[in-house]
Amino acid sequence: MVLLSHDMVGTGDTVVLLHSSVCDRRMWDPQWQSLLDAGYRVVRCDFRGYGQTPVPDAPNNNADDVRELLDALGIEQTAVVGSSYGGRVALEFAARWPNRVSALALLCAGSPHHEPTAELDTFDAEEEALVDADDLDGAVELNVRTWLGPDADDETRERVRGMQRHAYDVQLAAEGEYDQLEADCELSTITARTLIVSGKHDLDYFQQVAIDLADRLSDARHVQLPWGGHLPSLERPAETATLLKDFLNASS
């Protein structure tokens, strides 16, 4: 078993932060202290092949990895906050182990139950072409342009460049490439109170997912951010922290 690289600080109710596939656990730096100051025990981790967690040496499932981390830390129940791909993992986790999730916050999340749009397929093809051509700088810039909204400042854009480039370097240096194991899960099993956040400037796929999830989940509220791109926690950190704390406080 590979335990995900992680940080855990604080002594209150637990909040687990799951990162976007454009980033790693450092994307939560802007919210870290704010959540601690609000009295939460905060956990964040790197998925395999991101940050400080090595690439998988066999097919794996990220929701399983999160469960194994929480088991190792002795955490039986937690609020879960997921950004983008981390939101997709959070959805799966909450569906497969609903009793372990006290609250669920999804920031521009993906979903296993929603087919990619033409716009998302175009991005994937452009990124793949750049990586295949060994133009990693170009691929990084494509990601920064696509995933950060107009409110992101230069420092934030540079931060995302660093995290995305690190992910490319780690993943492309690996000898093997392993797919994620798919797990059967029904979103109807999710019982946690859920906050669904979308950005007006995000790709159409993620906006459609937000609407779909608000309809599918039994106790969900959808908030669209008129200023938001795909990574609101980095674009307006303080405002996103307040949004999360208000939701978590109401759930506790």
Essential attributes:
252 residues, alpha/beta, Rossmann fold, seven-stranded mixed beta sheet, 9 helices
Architecture, CATH level 2?
3-Layer(aba) Sandwich
Query: H/E order of the elements?
Result: EEHEHEHEHHHEHEHH
Per the CATH scheme, the topology name is Rossmann fold
Number of DSSP-assigned strands? 7
What's the rounded overall pLDDT mean?
Answer: 95
Q: Which range does the strand content fall in? A: 15-25%
Largest sheet: 7 strands, mixed
Radius of gyration: 17 Å
Spatially, the strands of the biggest sheet line up as 1-3-2-4-5-6-7
Number of domains: 1
Low-confidence runs of at least 5 consecutive residues: none
Q: What is the level 1 CATH name?
A: Alpha Beta
What class would the helix/strand composition place it in? alpha/beta
Q: CATH superfamily, called what?
A: Alpha/Beta hydrolase fold, catalytic domain
Number of helical regions: 9
Overall geometry comes to globular
Helix % is: 40-55%
Quote the distance from N terminus to C terminus: 32 Å
Oligomer: single chain
Keywords: Hydrolase
Domain AB hydrolase-1: 14-154
GO cellular component, one term: membrane
Protein name: Alpha/beta hydrolase fold
